[in-house]
Amino acid sequence: MTSFTMLFVLAIISLYASAVLADSRCHSYRRGATCQNDDLFCSGRYVSGKCYGGANRRCCLPGSGDRRCTRQRGTCKYDSNSCSGSYRSGLCAGPSARRCCLPSSSSSTGGGRGTVDYRGYTVSDADVRSKLQEIANLYGKRVYLFSGDRPRQSNTKSHHYVSRAADFWIDGESSGRAIWNRLKSSGILARDYQVIWHGTRTCTGGQHIHIGRYGDNRSTCWVIEGTSSSNKCEYDCQ
């Protein structure tokens, strides 16, 4: 390596280190704060002088709409930016592209690494598979399937028939209500899903949890079906 090349490399490293150091003033100012151009949505308010770059690149302090993300030690930012862990939807205020970046070790309740046992069923949709893994991690247990993709039919609205659904249960859990409540409060399925707790009186063939993806990023529809004779085969959003 020539002296010129070495000096050039050192200059690049120094420039990068300066940028990281400058942005750290924003990140340490408040949990969930992030540097971005100030023409982008910010759920709280902007603070100047804490970010690297031009005058319009400022520190966005999160507002109350980001609390579901920041409480999990995440940062709300636009998903075109890199994330050291994984992005999760439905936890941040603003446009759909503004999502919660959760550290790779983060879990909504600290459950740990779980497993998904497909038991021979196929789930073609990558997002549904990802959600199943997140649910397994939430509990730190095995999630096992009862159903996945089904042959396409034109006379049903079920997401199973468009290959965007899964039916499952969680090892060691006895209460469908408790699973349904925990999934709802976790934020994992806050948007784009139908989540159904099919109770012991369900018309679908046995107690289980169903998740199906709409594909249009609407607010999630939370349903309780088959827990009594009055809601058997009823699918109203809660």
Please explain how this structure is put together.
This protein is 23% helix and 24% strand. The chain has 238 residues and is of the alpha+beta class. The chain has two domains: 29-102, no CATH class; 115-225, Muramoyl-pentapeptide Carboxypeptidase, domain 2. The strands form three sheets. The chain has a six-stranded mixed β-sheet. Strands 1-3-2 form a three-stranded antiparallel β-sheet, with helices on one face. The longest helix has 25 residues, at 3-27. It is elongated. The model is unreliable at 11-18 and 105-110 (pLDDT under 50).
Keywords:
238 residues, alpha+beta, Muramoyl-pentapeptide Carboxypeptidase, domain 2, 2 domains, six-stranded mixed sheet, three-stranded antiparallel sheet, 4 helices, elongated
**Termini gap:** 66 Å
Number of helices: 4
CATH A-level architecture of the largest domain: 2-Layer Sandwich
Q: What is the percent of helical residues?
A: 10-25%
* Rg (C-alpha, Å): 22 Å
Broad shape:
elongated
Query: Strands of the biggest beta sheet: in what spatial order?
Result: 7-8-9-11-10-12
* Class from secondary-structure proportions: alpha+beta
Please, what is the average pLDDT? 86
The poorly predicted ranges are 11-18, 105-110
Précis, in short:
This protein has 238 residues and is α+β, with helices and mostly antiparallel strands. It folds into two domains: 29-102, no CATH class; 115-225, Muramoyl-pentapeptide Carboxypeptidase, domain 2 (2-Layer Sandwich), CATH 3.30.1380. Helix content is 23%, strand content 24%.
